[in-house]
Each structure stands twice: as C-alpha cells, then as structure tokens.
Design a protein that fits this description.
Number of helices: 8
Structural class: mainly alpha
Number of strands: 0
Oligomer: single chain
C-alpha cells in the first residue's frame, strides 16, 4: 500500500505540468457537464494505464527506432491538429468534425473517444514512462509486484486529478455566458494546435 501511495504522490506532482488533455477535460466539463467529462477522464486513465504497462513490459524500446518514432509523431500531429482546428472553427460556428463536436450537448462516448485519441496521440508519453520505470528498477528496493503497485499509484493520480479538473470545469461552466464558452473553445483549440506543432517540429 505504501508503494501505491508513493506512486500516487509522484503522479500528482507530474499532473501539475498541465497539458492539452487537462485543458480539454476542463473545457468538456464547462460545456457539457461533469458526467461527460468523467467519460473523458476514464479514457485518459485507460490510455495512461496501457502506456504504463507497455513501459514496464519494455515495449517502449520500439519507440527508440527513428522511423517508428517519426511515424507515431506524424500520427500524433494529425490527431492533435484535427481536434485543435475543429475547436477553433467551432468558436465561429463552423463544424469541421461533427463526431468530435463539443460545443453542444453530445453523447457521452464522444468525449470518451476524443480524450482517448488525444491521450494516445502523444507517443512521447510511453517513452517517459519507460524511462521512469527503468530508473525505478535500476534503483532497486522494489520487487516486480512493487513496480506494478507504483504504476497503479500513478494511474490513480491521473484519475483523481482529472476528476477534480472536471468538477471545477463543470462548476465554473454554470456561470459562464455562451459567448465566453465559445471563446474557451477557440482558446483550447489554439493550445492544442500549439502542442501539435511542437510535437512535429521536435521529430
């Protein structure tokens, strides 16, 4: 249990580095409410858990191959660019991807799918987790079960932190006029486009 708490504490520190997923969850919560945002949180937590497992299993070593790395970066750029551009255009009432529209009431699975793609689009995540768990193994003091327990703690930190973000977004969204919510769509879209460009430029 102590190892799980250590992983949770470490994961919460990492959550402070706010990225596009956190911003997106806040935006969904402010527009559609806590339930829909919670679906997105579930998707993010699932992808993080899969990435951590793959990192522990050593699959992340494939990411060190230049061609694989560049291919995944291009895929990530395409996903981020499409979602970001859709949000920017939605601020002006233009719908680029109707399936990923978040400016109006939508089914719960839309935030889930959008969050799933948004989280999975960053191939550097699995590389980061691979480096972290390699370091933990090298340090010693943790059994194989301990490594999994530490990973569970970090996954739980993602779940808890983003649920608080979603709760905050749903509360604030009740007091924001429609015009500001549209501006928020555009701002989030611009941020996601920034992350997309930064990803492709570093490849």
């Amino acid at each position: 249990m102590m190892v799980v708490l250590r992983g949770f504490r470490f994961g919460m520190i990492l959550q402070l580095a706010v990225g596009p997923v956190c911003i997106y969850i806040f935006n969904v919560a402010s527009k559609q409410g806590l339930l829909e945002a919670a679906a997105g949180v579930a998707a993010v937590t699932f992808v993080d858990a899969m990435f951590i497992l793959l990192a522990i299993f050593g699959v992340a070593s494939l990411m060190e191959r230049p061609k694989v790395n560049r291919g995944l970066r291009i895929f990530g750029f395409a996903v981020l660019f499409a979602l970001g551009m859709n949000l920017v255009l939605s601020a002006f009432g233009i719908e680029l991807l109707s399936h990923f529209r978040i400016s109006s009431v939508a089914e719960v699975d839309r935030p889930f799918l959008s969050s799933l793609l948004l989280t999975a689009s960053n191939p550097l995540t699995i590389v980061f987790w691979a480096g972290l768990f390699t370091a933990k193994i090298a340090e010693g003091g943790l059994s194989k079960a301990g490594i999994y327990a530490f990973g569970l703690g970090t996954v739980l930190s993602t779940l808890v932190f983003l649920l608080f973000v979603a709760l905050g977004g749903s509360i604030i969204g009740q007091f924001l006029p429609k015009t500001l919510l549209q501006i928020l769509d555009g701002a989030v879209g611009v941020l996601i486009l920034y992350f997309a460009v930064r990803m492709i430029r570093s490849s």
